[in-house]
Write a structure and sequence with these properties.
Blueprint lengths: L1 H67 L5 H14 L10 E2 L5 E3 L22 H12 L1 E8 L8 E8 L4
Antiparallel strand pairs: 1-2, 3-4
């Protein structure tokens, strides 16, 4: 009989342990799924960003080809490519800018006051020289992602952003 009494007492303890264990397991699974989902969403955003940059580069490539073929002057080709890229938008408020390898801003559709300015000393709130980083990625890899803080259209404070930068030649 004594053994049965101990079993009954341990049954309630086991129920508590199994209940707590179940809650902890469920919590761990939900945290993992949340992390996995967020990671997948970020990867999808990066892939989409890369693809739209490649589309913008194809606009520049088309005008460069027209200039090489003599269908238009190089200056006219650059001007038309800039105009078309300036007007491109994706995901409503996202846009394209062009800077050179110094880094001087060639064209920024939202902040045209940056056009022609050397942005070597420009830093985000965390101290990242983002335009220098853009040039570094292009110089070292030809293309890649850069994370930084920037005031998005419609926001006063800088927000986390990811950009895909790609070197365009010629």
């Amino acid at each position: 009989m004594r053994w049965i009494a101990k079993r009954k007492g341990s049954l309630s303890a086991r129920l508590v342990i199994f209940s707590v264990g179940g809650v902890l397991t469920l919590t761990a699974v939900l945290v993992w799924v949340s992390f996995f989902w967020e990671s997948n969403l970020m990867e999808e955003k990066r892939t989409a960003t890369k693809h739209v940059v490649e589309v913008a580069c194809s606009v520049a490539e088309r005008f460069a080809k027209l200039a090489q073929e003599g269908a238009m002057t190089e200056e006219a080709a650059k001007a038309q490519a800039l105009d078309q890229i300036r007007s491109l938008r994706y995901r409503e408020n996202d846009y394209f800018w062009i800077n050179d390898m110094k880094p001087v801003m060639v064209m920024h559709p939202i902040k045209p006051e940056l056009n022609g300015k050397d942005l070597s000393d420009f830093k985000d709130p965390h101290g990242k020289h983002l335009f220098v980083e853009f040039v570094k990625v292009c110089r070292e890899k030809g293309a890649g992602f850069v994370d930084y803080l920037w005031p998005k259209p419609g926001f006063e404070q800088p927000v986390p952003k990811v950009s895909y930068v790609k070197l365009f030649q010629p």
